[in-house]
Structure formats: C-alpha cells, structure tokens
Write a structure and sequence with these properties.
This protein is α/β, with parallel strands linked by helices and 330 residues long. It folds into two domains: 200 residues, no CATH class; 121 residues, no CATH class. The protein is built from eleven helices and ten strands. Helix content is 36%, strand content 18%.
Length: 330
C-alpha cells in the first residue's frame, strides 16, 4: 500500500485545478448536517474530512431513483466523489456484484463506475447508530475505494488502494511530503481508536452471521411487535446503501424506465392475480431482514448490511433494528 502526504493547502490547490477537468462531489457540513454537495472553487475549504457519515448514501450516485434506460447516453466529465465512509464503500461492493455481473451487466451502472474516482475518508469518530465493526467492516477503507484519505494536523495522508488510484496520482503530479513510519503509526492508531469507540458503543449486538441465524429462528411475535410502528414509508430501503430493487416500466414509444422500488411498500410482491405473499405488514417487515442477513449472503460474497445505521435514523416510526437483534439473543 502506497502512502502519500500532502499539505492541506496544496491539496486544496490540487482540487481547484481538478475542477477544470472533473466534476467533484464532496462532504460538506451545512445547517442540516453532513452531506454530499457539488463542489465549486469557493466550496473547497468547506470540505469535511474524517467525519461519519453523509445523509445520502453513495448508492444514489450510481442508481438514480428514476431513469430512462432507452434514452441516448450523454457524455459527461469524469467525476470524483470525495469523503466516502467505508460503510458506503463496502455497500458498493455488493452493488458491483449485482450490476456488473458478467452475464447481466447493467450498462448504465458500469459507465458511472468507470467514470468515477472514489476517494474514501477514514472515520475518526462515530455517530450514535454506527455499527460497521459489528459486521467486521472497518471504519477505514482497504479496498474498492481507489484512494483513502485522512487529515492529520493539516496534512492530508492518502493511501493508494487500486490501479485506478495509482494512475490518478501519477496524472496529477502531487507535491508530496515525506511519509515516515511515525505518520503511518499515527494513522493506524487513529483507526484503532475509532474501532474501540465502535466496539464499546455496540456491546451485545450480534455479528452478521449470528443475526441471520436469529432471524431464521425467530417467531412472528417479535416482528409483529416492532412492525406495529412501521408506516411502510420505505425510508429504510431508500436510504440504505445496498437496497437495489427496481421496477422496469414500459412507456409509450418503446421507452423503458427503471424505477427504484422497495420491499416495505404495500403491494411489493402483489402479482397479477391479486395474491400478495407480503400483504401482512409484519411479514413485509421481516422480509427486509431476511434479504439482508440470510438470502443475499447465500448468493453474493459481499454482505448486505454494512452497519451505517441510516435506516434507524430515517425511520419515521423510530424503529431501531439493533434493538430487535439484541432482544433476539437474550
């Protein structure tokens, strides 16, 4: 792994130059919290590093809520997404497995992936519902992202993780500072400190495999109890970095529109004859967790819940899935 150090001022100047040839999105703090914004020159100093986590998941950059998949492709500038937490990076690993499948590759998704440079950020703090480590996901990237960044006392330390990242670094010719063992130790110490915070905050939460087992063995009563507050708004599936169900809608003129869908919406499994296996709310509610912790792990190599906690934060009914899983193992 290659480490590169660059003074924050030089890095900001580099980003300013990159705006000439790239579209850049980065995490910016505003009155509503932390989220991605389209970066202009005057926004560069506002970019936030090492803070979890943007309101919007990375998924939205690759899977639009609605798109015409028969329309002409518009050529766009290459883009950089800066400040991605590793929970979203790991979520993208699953989407890659689904949409970059050798037999059924999604052309639109592939073009977006190839056109995007991913720069993740190491989390040096946690939010209330962060629980990535419980599922063996670290609060820092070691793969899938092209480059990882951490701001240490005014110096941006970059870890180059992929060939695409290497090519990018060579292309922009950074004026770098020396990265010695002391700095590497400081980066690793920061990683360990964040992991300690996560471990302490999520004591008692079962791991990913144990959670799947508990869901399979659970009775209907626990799902009826927690789903009683569910209003089927679909916020959990919409904001989740790995949920990716969609409808393909036929339109006049042989157009086809891909519309994101969600298993928490009434009628999600209703068929033409009117039958609906998920008509009852508690079955629909349980279905989401069966998908995430049982079915997808059997089909894919990447896990389907990365512990970001956004579904808990977005829930109108204030349903905390972690409370469900902790109750199951008692």
């Amino acid at each position: 792994m290659q480490y590169i150090g660059i003074k924050k001022e030089e890095w900001d100047n580099t980003l300013e130059q990159l705006l000439l040839s790239y579209t850049i999105f980065a995490n910016v703090e505003n009155e509503f919290g932390l989220d991605y914004e389209l970066i202009r020159q005057e926004d560069i100093e506002r970019i936030s590093y090492n803070r979890p986590k943007p309101v919007t998941s990375l998924k939205s950059f690759f899977l639009p809520v609605r798109e015409n998949v028969t329309s002409e492709i518009i050529e766009e500038k290459p883009r950089i997404i800066l400040g991605i937490p590793n929970c979203d990076i790991e979520g993208l690993s699953l989407l890659d497995e689904i949409y970059l499948d050798n037999e059924f590759s999604d052309f639109y998704y592939r073009r977006r992936r190839e056109n995007t440079l991913l720069i993740s950020t190491d989390c040096t703090s946690i939010k209330e519902h962060c629980h990535c480590l419980s599922y063996n996901i670290h609060p820092y990237s070691s793969g899938t992202a092209d480059i990882a960044a951490i701001n240490l006392d005014g110096t941006i330390i970059l870890r180059v993780l992929t060939r695409k990242g290497e090519d990018f670094i060579k292309k922009i010719q950074l004026e770098t500072t020396t990265v010695d063992d002391t700095i590497i130790v400081a980066v690793e110490s920061s990683h360990q400190a964040t992991e300690t915070l996560l471990a302490d905050a999520n004591y008692g939460l079962p791991d990913y495999k144990k959670t799947g087992q508990q869901i399979q063995e659970s009775k209907a009563d626990i799902w009826q109890k927690y789903s009683s507050r569910c209003v089927s708004c679909g916020a959990c599936v919409t904001i989740c970095p790995t949920c990716s169900c969609f409808l393909l809608i036929d339109k006049p003129g042989f157009e086809k529109v891909k519309q994101m869908d969600g298993c928490q919406y009434p009628g999600f499994e209703r068929v033409a004859g009117g039958e609906d296996a998920l008509f009852e709310l508690h079955n629909r509610f349980k279905n989401r967790y069966l998908c995430k912790y049982v079915w997808k792990p059997k089909k894919f190599g990447s896990i389907a819940c990365t512990g970001c906690g956004r579904c808990i934060e977005a829930c109108i009914g204030q349903i905390n899935k972690n409370e469900i899983f902790i109750e199951m193992v008692k």
